[in-house]
What does this fold into?
Amino acid sequence: MVWDTLHMDFTMHGFRHGDYLAMNVGEYVAYWSEIDDALRSISDDDIVEHFKEHGEHRQKSISITLNALIKARLVERGWAAESRIFAEQKYAEGPVAFPDPLDKPSRTILTSEGGSSPSRMKHVVRGGSGRLRRLVPDELDMLQTFPKGWTEGMSDGHRAFCMGNALVVGVPHRIGLEIAKFDK
It folds into this structure.
């Protein structure tokens, strides 16, 4: 399942005190348990199949696919389909391919690439075994054209943050070479 795959060690969490409510306050514990069960019932194949059927032709993000699958699972459990929690969100960032294609230029790495919280902005690729996984720190180093292991010695989260904060090495180098021509 998506939530348990290698290099995708996501933890479910809420904002502010949401996780406290979900784990400690009566009715919220039951709700969270149902949501957690619904999330865990969604496989990698479910996500890819739904996205291919409903996402690519609409140029929508993977989060719309995930929302639709979660809604379907919860409606099966008796939740009201017309609930406002299922309202389609409007995203302005544009489409994000899922999984990230390995045969095309990469999207920009952001400082939020690391960490365990789920985000549609993190890079997800299909590994050699066919499983979905996130990019590992060495891959992030190389994607930014730094040598493999450039950020070794830090935690994986800090390594990803550094690469999200970095420029692709070749770009500023070429800009510098062009500036140097005018400085002579």
Observations:
- Residues 26-40 form the longest helix (15 residues).
- The chain has a mean pLDDT of 77.
- Strands lie at 124-126, 132-134.
- The two ends are 59 Å apart (CA to CA).
